Structures are given as structure tokens and as C-alpha cells.
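Predict both folds.
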Amino acid sequence: MNSISRTVAALACVFGMAWSGAAAAAPVQVNIGIVTAPAFVHTLSAEKFKEALDKALPGEYDVVIHNSGALGSETQVLQQLQLGTVQMCVCTTGPVEAFVPEIKAIEMPFLFSSYEQTDKVLDGPIGQDLLKRFGKAGLVGMHFEDNGFRNLTNSKRAIREPADVKGMKIRTMESPTHLAIWRDIGANPTPMAWPITTQLQQGVLDGQENPISVISAAKLNEVGQKYLTLTRHVYSALVFVGSKAFFDKLPPADQQAFMAAAAQASTFGRNYVRSNEAKQLAALEAAGMQVVTNPDLAAFRAKTEPVYASLTGDTKKIVDEIRKSEK
């Protein structure tokens, strides 16, 4: 081999090594599946997670947020997490019940009285135990955050007591517990993945139930939902969930960074929901939504007692512990 050939070969080797090093250093893509649009707290908190992770592990991970149901319903995204084809999601806890049955404990009607109580429970031993239970489903429970307390909207009439809901077709999450709640109240509950704008516009559904933050961000007052009743019947947590197949391959230090980023993002999400709730409610009312602020909650509670009677095993124990936390 002559000197020119040796030089070319050496340069090729150098460039080859550089290319190989660059390829090895390429950031790992982390896909986050979210069913709601960018204006919702789900996406806003996912963006905070991305910022926190980029700061902790600069250039190592490329967080891509897929909102507006681009990766499917929450149930479908959770299934993809089990397979490892999606790495994370921010979802409501209702659909998680199909994967982690004990999560229904925090979905029970009129169980929580305040955000102070939800923080005490979800950040304490009860919440941490629930997050650990995600593992048996091939998931990683990372951190709870707020969606808010759920309230009822509809296109038909003002709702003040359970009798007013009788026969109404009310959209619920894909959750057996939520279906049971609304059956007991007397509605015709219809489980349906988000979004539901078209179904509300076309009158396929009479109403739905969601926190103020969701009702506001989705502008449900503009799709025929004329009436809002502040039932606050279920506290609706959001949860950062990871794929166990993905997490198990991460170095321990990186796992800790992911968890810390989720905790930071969850704190942001809670503050966002709570600080904006009153303003969002006032804006909905100013836009023409008729708001019932004092429904007969005692009557609604009485109607939903059978949901508690059906509890067994660990779920019943968790609910009993949550009830003790309020005392």
C-alpha cells in the first residue's frame, strides 16, 4: 500500500470512528402519549417533564410529546407501554383500573374532601403503595398529579338532584367504577375514549363529567353543554406512567432523573389546575354556561353508596385507610 492509500485508509478509519461515536451518542427517543390537546394540563405538564429531564440529562434523551390522541386512547397507550413500543404517558387514573385494579380506590365517589387530603394520601404511603402496584402490569407508576374534581355538564337542563339526571346519556371514562357510579345515580352512562366533541355536537351524548380544567380547555360550552353542576363527585388524578420494559433498561441514575422530572412536572400540574380553577369557572359562566353551585350532594352520595358495598380485598383496605386520613 502506497502512502496516499495509507492516508486515505487512515482518514476513512478516523471518520468511521467519529461517525460511530456520533451514532452511539444519539439521544434516546422517549415518546409520551397523551389523549388531550396542547392546552390541557396533561400536555403542559409533559412539557415541564421534558424541560426537567433535558436539564438533568442534557442531550441524552429526546422527549417527543404526542398529544390529541395521536397514539390512541388512554387504554391503547397503556397497552403500548406494556409492549414497550411507547415509553411514557400522562393519563387519568380511570382507565388504569383495567391494568391496576386497586387504583379504583382513589376513584370512589365523594371520597376526598379537599386537595390537601389528596396530597396527603397520594404523596404518602397509600399513594406510594399504589404506584408500586403498577409494576405487576408491566408499567411504572411515576407520580400523581391533578386533573381536578369532576363535575357534570349537559345540554338538557339544570341538574340539582339525582332525579334530574334520570335516563341522560352521560359519557364516562372507560372505567367500570365510573360506569357503576352513574348507573347508581340513574343516568345512562356511556364509556367513550376522549375526545368527545363530535358526539356532544351531534347530540349522541347528553352530557359528560370532567374537572373544570378539562371543561374549560375543551370549550364544552361551545358544543352544546349549556349546564354545569358542581358535583365534585370524584377526585380525578392524573399519573405519569412509564413502560417497565423501557425503564428496566435505563441506568439507575437515569431512572432517578426520570422520576425526579416527573415529580417536578406533577407539582407544576397541581399548581396549574388549582390556581386556574376559579378563573376558568368564572369564564365559563360569563360565556353563558348556567352553573348550579349547590346541588343536593347528600342525595348524590346516598345514591352512590352501593359502589362502596361492592369493594373487597386490598381495594377495600385502601379505601378504609383513605377515609381514616380525613380524621
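Second protein follows, with its predicted C-alpha cells after the sequence.
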Amino acid sequence: MDYKKAFEINKETWNKKVAVHAKSDFYGLDAFKKGTSSLNIFEREALGDVTGKSLLHLQCHFGQDTLSWSRMGARCTGVDISEEAIQLATSLNSELNLDATFACCNVLDTSQYISETFDIIFTSYGVIGWLPDLKPWAQMIFERLQPGGVFYIVEFHPIAWMYDYTVTPPELKYGYQQKEAIFEEYKGTYADEHSNIVSKEYGWNHGLGEIISSLTGAGLHIDYLKEHQESPYDIFPGLVRNKKGLYEMPNGLYPLVFEIKARKL
């Protein structure tokens, strides 16, 4: 298929989403500006003290996580495909008097825009499903990591993406290792289901084996893979909130989130 056209359609959708997301309760921008961190328990525990470390945030949207790491003392760079997202991220960085930098590019082209290498590369929640092939993604991560540097991803579990959530109840429709693109067109966005914007999206499913093999094939060493029954975000139908403030399926049939930490030796 024409991947360039698919990326352009996805970018158009994300450009439209920025203004809606910035006003949404989901992103809580006003509270963020007052000092609330957008980072969740998984990534905070995994990366710990980032003071003085250089950090590259892949697919950063409008930069809240990037700027949260910056507030914690990291020297941050964020990249995203959406011009509107990068424009807002840059504006927030100035408004909050932080020192992050941002670049607008397809994440697969990061090395064409950024030559620096980093102590940490970070990406999270709804990122790899926009990529048809993870091998160039993993190679770029290897290129941008310093020796001894850490790559960390926390992401929604591939089993969760086997369902079509545009119908009620959700239908088990897509393959765990499906190679064909998944195209969806629907009104609204996960941050505001009542928005009138029309989301047109191409996505690709990636199983855990493919993800791990892409990273090791690029030369990274896997420290761990963890799977969790809980999600910090209430974005799938029918989830219930537990005592820790996280969301889980009532029947616990499959995990909702996974983490991978890897390093460049």
C-alpha cells in the first residue's frame, strides 16, 4: 500500500485532534500548567531519577510528557509528526520557562532531523500502532542511543488492538499478527467522544514477538518485558477503576499494558 499517503492521512487527523485534546479533561492542560505531571506510575518507576540525563521522547503529541520529564531535570527533545502538536509543545515550553526542544517529523525519520545521541529514549501509550514496520523504528532507536543508554516503552497490549471499538459491543476482528493495514473512520476522539471532528486513521497491529525481535535485531539488549492487567487510562469499553486508581477489565481475561526496557551495550 501507499504508506506515504497513509502517514499523511494520519497526520491530518492528529493535526485536527490537537485543539480538541488541549481543551479536554483527559489531558487536563490547566492543571498541567500549574504543575501536575502527566506521567504515570509505570514510566516513573521504570526510569526513576532522570536528573541531568538527555532524553528523546518519540511521538510526543503536544509535549506534556516531554515537559514533565523536563520538570524532573532531564534535558529533553520531543518529536511528533503533527505540526500543530509541535507548535503547541513549543509554546508550552516557552510559557512554562522550560528548556525542551521539539522537532516535527515522522518518527521513522528522526535520525534525519536529530543527530544527537541520548541517555534515554522514551515512548508511550498508543505509539507503535501507527507504524507499518518496526525494523526501521528499532534501528533509529539504536542509532540515537548512547552506549549504555536505555530505551523504554510502555504501550497498550497488542491483544487490546484486536478489537473493533467503533461498534458496540466491541468485536474481535483483527489479527494479533495482522500485516494488513487497519483503516477506521469515526466521529470524535479518545479524549472527547462528543467532538465533531472526523478521525481517519491507518494502523498496524504488532505482536510482542515482533516488537522484541525488532529491538534485538537492531542490536539492543532486553532488560525486561512486563505485562499488566491495569491501564492508567480509561480508554477501552467496560473498564472498572481499582483501588490503585488504575483501570482493568472486570473479568481480567487479558493484559491491557506492557512495558519493555532495553539498552544499548
